[in-house]
Amino acid sequence: MGTGVMIGAGIFALTGQVAEFAGPYFPAAFFLAAVISAFSAYTYIKMSNKYPSAGGIAMILQKAYGQSAMTGACALLMAFSMVINESLVARTFGTYTLQLFDVGDDTIWVPILALGLILVAFLINLAGNQYIGAVSKITAVLKVGGILLFAGAGLWASGLSFEAVASSGNRDYSAAGFLAGVALAILAYKGFTTITNSGDEVKNPQRNVGRAIMISLGLCLLVYMAVAFAVGSSLGLEELVASKDYALAEAARPTLGQYGVYFTVGIAIIATASGLLASIYAVSRMLAMLTEMNLIPHSHFGMPGRIQKHTLVYTVVAASLLALFFDLSRIASLGAIFYLVMDIAIHWGVFRHLRKDVGARSWVLLTAIALDTLVLGAFLILKAQADPLIIITAVAGIILIFVFEIFYLGRRRGEKGVQAAQS
User: Where are the transmembrane segments (predicted)?
Assistant: First the structure.
């Protein structure tokens, strides 16, 4: 399950995006992103070993910060990061699907197809969990096997000549640009956090949750490196950046021909559709949990049924709006910023309050914080120069989330105080 969640739409959406920042060194960016994710995973593994549960990130934050605005705000950052990823996945679905037709890149059909996929995923989620589980198992095998087949065929057809390096010329790529590429590449690995939600469902979770996370990260690294070298062997760097929204389909064209494009687009459709289906379920479940923990408010808006059905609607509406009005680059940038801020908060919380309780080594936690901060800082600097609006949007969003949580929890404490005084 962990491998299926991690390997999927991210590699289709992010290969070209990472290459735009890291240049011909984009395979190294994926490798470093795996190293940083491994340091991050240490915190989640230690917490899951000590407190195996279905709570995942929300549980870790509550253990570290208690019933506080920090817990609620960081949990919401993760939820919004996942919603942002859903819109990224949905637009990737639209972009790859249109490679089957003779239409331009800048077309209204991308958001229309993205919205259609979100609505289909919503309806399947309404049908029940058993459908989601069955679809996820089948598609996990298809997409992982298909991506490996694409990578192997691409490397074989290209003769292992790394065209991206040969075509890069004398252009210099800065260390900051490389680190910004790493920040985006981390999004392709962050799915390991969903494995922590399975602590109450697996045998011997104190051992197996951590093993599942590390095995999934290792498998993802192998697959992503194979894909990166296959794409870099097929396309020159300028071609790769020009086709960044559908890089794998474009890479299949010169080496594998039109049938290779059909195959790659088919795998992309499976990966994006299944990834969106699972993500919508996970986010709605997380929001329902935060509601039950009294960390966020809830309104039925006249809708019948359980809380998770309502949070499912909220999730779909938010993802649809993002998919309609933001392009892939901006969606990926927002997701990276929100995720890295939340990740730093988790490491700091465990270091500050729980490291002795869970037996975590301080130097590993501090290294995870330093690595996250380094790539986030480089990413913010580059985006501030190239697209300041997305930085303003991200910072404003983070501030609003924290202010909202402070106000909401303060009001709840005030209401409890009034009720206690009256009784």
Answer: 25-45, 65-84, 108-128, 140-161, 173-192, 212-231, 259-283, 311-328, 334-351, 363-382, 388-409
Question: Per-domain residue ranges for the chain?
Answer: 2-417
Find out whether 100 and 265 touch, Cβ atoms under 8 Å.
yes
Q: Which residues contact 317 (CB under 8 A, 6 or more apart)?
A: none
DSSP character at residue 102: S
Angle separating helix axes 129-158 and 109-127, nearest 10 degrees: 140
- Residue 392 one-letter amino acid: I
As given in the structure block, the two tokens for residue 237 are: 């760097």
pLDDT in tens, the chain (423 residues): 667 667 766 788 888 889 888 888 899 999 999 999 999 999 998 988 888 765 578 888 989 998 888 998 998 898 888 888 889 889 989 999 998 887 766 678 889 999 999 998 888 877 765 666 667 777 777 888 888 888 888 778 766 666 555 555 556 678 888 999 999 999 888 888 877 766 556 777 777 888 888 988 998 898 899 888 888 888 888 888 888 888 888 888 887 788 888 999 998 888 888 888 878 877 887 888 888 888 887 666 566 667 777 888 888 999 999 888 888 788 888 989 999 999 999 999 999 999 999 999 999 999 999 999 999 999 999 999 888 999 999 999 999 999 999 998 888 776 665 555 555
**Residue 205 neighbours by CB distance under 10 Å:** 19
CA distance 402 to 82: 18
